[in-house]
Each structure stands twice: as structure tokens, then as C-alpha cells.
Amino acid sequence: MEDLFATLRCRTDLADGAVLLPGFAISCAEQLLEGIRHLALETPFRIMKTPGGRPLSVATTSCGDCGWYTDQKGYRYVRTDPLTGKPWPQMPDMFFELACTAAKEAGYPDFSPSSCLINRYEPGAKMGLHQDRDEDDLSSPIVSVSLGVPARFAFGGLLKTDPVQRHDLFHGDVVVWGGISRLAWHGVSPIRETFHPQTGAMRYNLTFRAINAALFQP
Ligand code: MD3
Ligand code: FE
Fold first, then answer.
1. Nearest-ligand number for the alpha carbon of 188
2. Percent of the chain with pLDDT over 70
3. Separation of 49 CA from ligand 2 center, angstroms?
4. 112 CA distance to ligand 2 middle (Å)
5. What pTM does this model have?
6. At a CB cut-off of 8 Å and minimum separation 6, what does 110 contact?
7. Which of 75, 107, 182, 215 is most enclosed, with most CB atoms within 10 A?
8. pLDDT level of residue 136 (50, 70, 90 thresholds)
């Protein structure tokens, strides 16, 4: 059994403002996965399309006061899940507490995420280089939690053409992306076909975000 406090000592700065907390979420991973299964009953994973009409390679869903959405109308945060016509499910308390504790550990004691985006990767799924700038709250960090099979993650600089560093994210790893790294270009290489006892072939990634509420759309 991995020890939470042992892993805390191994924190590393991946880049300016980006703090890796290896295994920080291991002790609550089963509860997170149970929470994801439960949320997906209310708001199913779906493959959204870019504004240009191309399907994402990952399946996504959200919880919290608003959820990230993309279709022909563009990238945005919406209060209502367009698939169900209902508000996104409430963020489970345990999800919220985990994100706040990780952010505090990384130096952000005031972090209070209003949304959690859940990405589900099957073998071969990937995420192209992008920046996360739909939140309009760039002073708050993004907290990411990786679950299941590992991913090779790439992150660069403020310009898309800046060189990238690659890093593996494993089950239970948490990264807090604050400061200048908040605007770094980043992406995920195609997921290898492999097995994790708690998720089978799948990888899940949760990203906790604070969003400027003035921007929420119905
Ligand atoms: C660096 N997710 O949902 S997590 C995303 O593994 C996203 O699903 C990836 O990029 C995934 O937007 C990467 C790590 C991550 C998340 C957000 C970031 C890195 C970040 C925001 C800014 C800079
Ligand atoms: Fe991202």
C-alpha cells in the first residue's frame, strides 16, 4: 500500500509554477473512481466536437457549478449539460476537498474550484497541444488528477512553438498548474494499450478549475 505522506515528500517542480505531487490521490483513488462511475450515470461520458466539427479523441463529462463544453458554438463553460438538459451534477465533497488540499500543498490556500472536467482515455486516445484559457481566471491554478493507466504528458512554454518537456503521469499523481505554467501549452501522447487493476485499459484525468462566474452561460 503506497503511503500518502511518503509520497508527499517527493514533490517536484516540473516547471515554473507546476508542482507534481506524486501519488497524492492514491489513498482516495477508489473513491474517486466510484464517484466517476456514479456521476456518469447522471451525466454520461460523451465525445464532443471542436468548433470546427472534429470529434475529440477523449470522452468527457463534468460536475460542479458549470461544465466545459465544445460544439459548433465554440469552447465555453455552461451551467446546463446540453446532453441531459439538466444542471451538471454537484461536485462530490471528496473531489472538492482533494483539489483544495492539493492546491494548498502547492501554495494556493484559497483555491476553490467551481468545475471539474473529467476526461476518459481509451487506448490510442490523445490530446493535442493546447492552452487552457476558457476560464478567464488565470490567477487560480488548475489541479489535475491522473487515474488508471499512465500517460505521457508534454508541456512546453507560452508559445506553441516552444520546446516541450515530456513527463509520465501515473495513477494517483496530482499536478498543480499555477503561476506562469497555467498558460503553458500542453498535451497528451496516445495512450498505450495496457492494464490497470482499477480501471482496466482506461485512463481518467480530472481537472479542477476556478471559473469567472460572470462567464457562465445557461
Ligand atoms: C498545464 N488534460 O483537460 S492534465 C485538459 O491528461 C488537459 O487529460 C490533460 O489538458 C489530461 O485541459 C492534461 C495536466 C494539465 C491540465 C491542465 C493544465 C496540465 C496543464 C493547464 C495549464 C497548463
Ligand atoms: Fe489542458
1. 1
2. 96
3. 16
4. 18
5. 0.95
6. none
7. 182
8. confident
The architecture CATH gives domain 2-215 = Sandwich (2.60)
Of 96, 190, 203, 95, the closest CA to residue 147 belongs to: 203
Grid cell in block for residue 80: 446546463
CA–centroid distance, 187 to ligand 1, in Å, is 7
Q: Is the model's pLDDT at 4 over the cut of 60?
A: no
The pLDDT of residue 8 is above 80 = no
> Within 13 Å of residue 21, how many CA atoms lie on the same side as its CB?
25
Q: Give 216's DSSP letter.
A: -
Question: Whose grid coordinates read 485512463?
Answer: 203
CA proximity to 75, closest of 92, 54, 91, 93: 54
**Count of CB atoms situated within 10 Å of the CB of 198:** 15
What confidence category does residue 216 fall into, taking pLDDT thresholds of 50, 70 and 90? Answer: confident
What residue ranges do the domains of the chain occupy? Answer: 2-215
Coil, helix or strand at residue 65: coil
Choice from 13, 115, 121, 186 to test ligand 1 binding pocket (greatest atom count within 8 A of CB): 186
